[in-house]
Amino acid sequence: MKKCLAGCYLLMSLCVASSCTTKNNQQTGKVETAEESTFSGVRIVPEYARGFELSYRDGYVLADIRDPQNEESTTFHYALVRRGMKPAGIPGSYTVIETPIRSVICMTSLQLSNFIKIGELDKVVGVTSTRHLFNKEMNERLESGKTAKIGIEGNFDNEVIMSMNPDLILVSPFKRGGYETLKDVGIPLIPHLGYKEMTPLGQAEWVKFVGLLLGQEQKANETFDAIAMRYNELKELTAEGKVKKRPVVLSGEMRGGNWYAVGGESFLAQLFEDAGAD
């Protein structure tokens, strides 16, 4: 009888241990241990973007972000870890960011377009100016109060930002606009420098970085691959010998009564359909 009870206790212990150390992925049917699930097997590898570099380590990812137009610019360092885990060996100069992020504030339409394309608008709890925002889902979120307006560059409402309590704020640190005051709210700021990339595909590839923050690496890679394929299809239509007359096209924006020409933004906006524009 004692042997039987001992056997039962042993079996129960093994079952409990198994349930605590494994997770059943219902989508793939794969059973993964907690150690294997630290990060997904899908990696983000930037091919065109020059503004961010990723280094995969044991249990975390080091992200180095810099101005792709200026190699001597300030480099921002982040260590991305899975929520609730504390891997060893993270360099002290890196700011730890838990992922997947649950909420975020976007400062530009380019940032917002990444969340639109991945299908994660429910994570966006705050945005800046909505004057030219045409995305139906985001406008509905604004009307219902699920997403808040935080003000405009240089005049952010810190009280609204703190009330939303996002996991992080995506910023454009090399633009004008009062980002220094945001440091006082105690919420991590991460630069999104897609607007500084010199090529359309470099700009578009920042969707991969956002996918990494969201824990949606596979979806982000697939999204970018589709954009790159369409871009190359259109590029092929204008290849040498296929077009006799090439028009000159300028894109830009109106500020303070003056029109400023900028490169790549209009084309990228078309690639990211449904995204609003600042």
Describe this structure in words.
The chain is an alpha/beta fold and 278 residues long. It folds into 2 domains: 2-33; 52-225, Rossmann fold, CATH 3.40.50. Helices cover 32% and strands 21% of the residues. It has a 5-stranded parallel beta sheet, with helices on both faces. A 4-stranded mixed beta sheet has the order 3-4-5-6, with helices on one face. Strand 8, helix 3 (136-144) and strand 9 (148-149) form a beta-alpha-beta unit. The longest helix is centred in the last third of the chain and has 21 residues, at 217-237.
The end-to-end distance, rounded to whole angstroms, is 76 Å
| CATH homologous superfamily caption of the largest domain | Nitrogenase molybdenum iron protein domain
**Number of folding domains?**
2
**Can you write the helix and strand succession as a string?**
HEEEEEEEHEHEEEHEEHHHEEH
Mean pLDDT: 81
Q: Just name the CATH architecture of the largest domain.
A: 3-Layer(aba) Sandwich
* Helical content (DSSP H or I, runs of 4+): 25-40%
Task: List segments where confidence is low: pLDDT < 50 over at least 5 consecutive residues.
Answer: 1-38, 273-278
Major β-sheet annotation: 5 strands, parallel
Taken from the alpha-carbon principal axes, the silhouette is globular
Number of helices: 8
Q: In total, how many beta strands?
A: 15
- Beta percentage is 15-25%
- Predict the CATH topology of the largest domain: Rossmann fold
Based on helices, strands and strand pairing, what is the structural class?
alpha/beta
What is the highest CATH level, the class of the largest domain? Alpha Beta
Question: Rg to the nearest angstrom?
Answer: 22 Å
Going across the biggest sheet, name each strand in turn: 9-8-7-12-13
